[in-house]
Amino acid sequence: RKSKITASRKLLLKSLMLAKAKECWEQEHEEREAEKARYLAERIPTLQTRGLSLSALQDLCRDLHAKVEVVDEERYDIEAKCLHNTREIKDLKLKVLDLRGKFKRPPLRRVRVSADAMLRALLGSKHKVSMDLRANLKSVKKEDTEKERPVEVGDWRKNVEAMSGMEGRKKMFDAAKSPTSQ
How far apart are CA 73 and CA 80, in angstroms? Predict the structure, then answer.
């Protein structure tokens, strides 16, 4: 089935889609940066250190250190949760793969095992029946086929000498002619 769109048209559409996707991605990136700037402006007020005394600056530093510690604790907790979640996701993926049965199979070696040995390995001590596959085969009598075609054993050299020359060809001609005339 041939496509109704030509190759040049496909290429044009693909380039247009890529250009639109790039434009959307850049716009999304700008929106993220604006959201980040707005959030930081909202959470972190501008510091005014001009005209503060030494004790006021020390109090400001203590407050900032306390806030940094709180944020660092939150970051550590969030990081621990993320690590826990990624481990759990990895374990669940392994369980899903095991349930599906799609795991890497090891390369198997060919082993010659008889049917009896295989059943003994599978069934253990329960295996009592022997698997004699030849027992139920039909027997063919060779003697009947030999009686149908009697083979004459003779000296082949005499036969070759008798058939050589014109007399041999005449005998073959006469032999081929005689069954039709009868």
Answer: 11
Q: What's the average model confidence in pLDDT over 22-51?
A: 91
What lies within 8 Å, CB to CB, of 170 at 6+ separation is none
Task: Return left, alpha or beta for 138; rule: phi > 0 is left, psi -120 to 50 is alpha, else beta.
Answer: beta
- Name the packing angle between helices 165-181 and 156-163 (round to 10°): 90
Residue closest to 19 by CA, chosen among 94, 27, 98, 89 = 27
Cα–Cα distance for residue pair 2/12, rounded to 1 Å:
19
Spatial separation of the C-alpha atoms in residues 11 and 5, rounded to whole Å: 10
Q: How far apart are CA 93 and CA 107, in angstroms?
A: 24
Return the minimum-mean-pLDDT range out of 98-102, 112-116, 141-145. Answer: 141-145
Please state the domain extents for the chain.
Answer: 11-44, 55-101
Rounded to two decimals, the pTM is 0.35
